[in-house]
């Protein structure tokens, strides 16, 4: 998650009362180490403020690890059924839809999980290099594209953020950069290639853009097909 994106998500959550959010399901959460050390702005901007407000958060991922509360696949009907008892009022789906083969199926299951008047906050790259985890389908939607994936939700906000350039995220300490590249190359070998690294190079000075949206599930679907205006950051 990019830092400006985490700030946007945190500010969006702050606009809702704690009792209208809790409990929150954080999909594709990664580990506690990742949220607090690798990308510390995730915890600082999103989850620390939620903890301070007493909002319960469950972290879901397909891998096991420290800080992952639930392990499973949302497209697995048995696993999905096990989640209904938690009565989630808000789902965070951040940087996940580009890593699944059927984003519409994932979004449909999110709608099934949410009660009426529940919220979903979703982010997906709009302009960003190939980054397999373990795949990247290159799904790069606009706000309207995201809205259409949630036909039973009403869009509250949709933006395309300017998220800086690759240079803003490069580690400038040579030793730390070496260690980071070593970890990245090891991971790419596991996932079958160097495409993720070579595709990043043109973005060192090209601006990233991130699509972010907030939606609310309503008893009646949006029929008109008209969406609120989006802002371009």
Strand-pairing-aware structural class = alpha/beta
- Sheet-strand content, in percent, reads 15-25%
Sheet having the most strands? 8 strands, mixed
- What is the number of helices? 8
Q: Overall 3D geometry?
A: globular
Number of domains: 1
Contiguous runs where pLDDT drops below 50 for at least 5 residues:
none
CATH architecture: 3-Layer(aba) Sandwich
**Residue-averaged pLDDT:** 86
CATH class: Alpha Beta
The named CATH superfamily? Vaccinia Virus protein VP39
Radius of gyration: 18 Å
The count of DSSP E runs of length 2 or more, i.e. the number of strands, is 8
Order of helices and strands: HEHHEEHEHEHEHHEE
Taking the alpha carbons of the first and last residues, their distance comes to 17 Å
Strand order of the biggest β-sheet:
3-2-1-4-5-7-6-8
The helix fraction, in percent, is 25-40%
Q: What oligomeric state best describes the polypeptide chains here?
A: single chain
CATH topology: Rossmann fold
């Amino acid at each position: 998650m990019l830092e400006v994106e985490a700030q946007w998500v945190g500010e969006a959550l702050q606009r809702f009362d704690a009792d209208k959010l809790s409990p929150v399901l954080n999909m594709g959460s990664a580990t506690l180490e990742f949220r607090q050390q690798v990308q510390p702005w995730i915890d600082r901007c999103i989850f620390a403020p939620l903890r301070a407000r007493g909002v319960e958060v469950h972290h879901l991922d397909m891998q096991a690890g420290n800080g992952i509360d639930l392990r499973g696949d949302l497209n697995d009907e048995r696993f999905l059924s096990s989640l209904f008892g938690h009565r989630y009022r808000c789902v965070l789906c951040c940087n996940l839809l580009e890593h699944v083969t059927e984003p519409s199926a994932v979004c449909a299951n999110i709608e099934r999980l949410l009660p009426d008047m529940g919220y979903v906050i979703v982010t997906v790259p709009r302009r960003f290099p190939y980054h397999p985890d373990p795949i990247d389908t290159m799904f790069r939607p606009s706000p309207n594209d995201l809205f259409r994936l949630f036909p039973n939700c009403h869009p509250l906000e949709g933006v395309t953020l300017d998220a800086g350039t690759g240079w803003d995220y490069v580690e400038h300490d040579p030793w730390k950069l070496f260690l980071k590249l070593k970890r990245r190359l090891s991971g790419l070998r596991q996932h079958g290639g160097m495409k993720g690294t070579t595709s990043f190079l043109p973005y060192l000075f090209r601006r990233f853009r991130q699509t972010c949206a907030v939606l609310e599930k309503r008893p009646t679907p949006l029929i008109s097909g008209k969406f609120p205006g989006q802002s371009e950051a």
